[in-house]
Design goal:
Low-confidence stretches: none
Mean pLDDT: 89
Structural class: mainly alpha
Strand content: under 5%
Largest sheet: none
Order of helices and strands: HHHHHHHHHHHH
Oligomer: single chain
Number of helices: 12
Distance between the termini: 55 Å
Radius of gyration: 19 Å
């Protein structure tokens, strides 16, 4: 019989289970237990980083994601989690560099493509941003930020056509009132 307290794989799976159930407190506890047993377990570092970042603790999430990436930079999931933490921390250039790595750039995962697009956009690379977000929407895969992606593309289209933007000023104001970051 496996001793739960000493098996980092089992502890991480229990963390994953609780995370899927929405119990982030218990998930965090299991991930932390797994890291006590195996502090360089990159997948668990990344899972905990993603959990913390998702709960608004960007700084701690970034630190754990960086550790995971330092241990296993070739892992596309870890690269994505680290890239997302970089993006959320405001380091758009490094985030974009990670999202452009071959293992991530060739993906059709709309979450990755959206983050690639937003990183490019933050650096003024509008065409690249538009192309990545469109590719994500066209992938046909479920996407948690579909509405934001559509709004982004709508704002880009309006900015490309100044006359249309003037004519649709109320729509621009409506979008900006719901999300002033555009």
């Amino acid at each position: 019989m496996v001793n739960e307290a000493s098996d980092p794989v089992l502890l991480s799976l229990l963390g994953d289970f609780h995370r899927v159930k929405g119990d982030t407190k218990r998930a965090k506890e299991f991930y932390e237990k797994a890291l006590k047993v195996s502090p360089k377990y990159a997948r668990v570092l990344a899972s905990l980083a993603e959990l913390l970042t998702g709960n608004g603790d960007i700084k701690s999430g970034y630190e754990l994601a960086k550790k995971a990436y330092d241990i296993k930079p070739e892992d596309p999931d870890i690269s994505y989690i680290f890239g997302r933490s970089l993006y959320l921390s405001g380091d758009y250039k490094w985030a974009l560099t990670l999202f452009q790595e071959p293992s991530l750039k060739q993906t059709d995962d709309p979450e990755v493509l959206y983050d690639l697009g937003m990183s490019a956009y933050a650096l003024g690379r509008v065409f690249e941003a538009k192309r990545a977000v469109e590719k994500g929407l066209l992938s046909g895969k479920a996407f948690s930020r579909t509405e934001e992606a559509n709004r982004f593309l709508e704002m880009i289209a309006l900015s490309e056509d100044l006359m249309r933007a003037v004519a649709e000023q109320s729509k621009v104001e409506e979008i900006l009132s719901t999300d002033p970051d555009y």
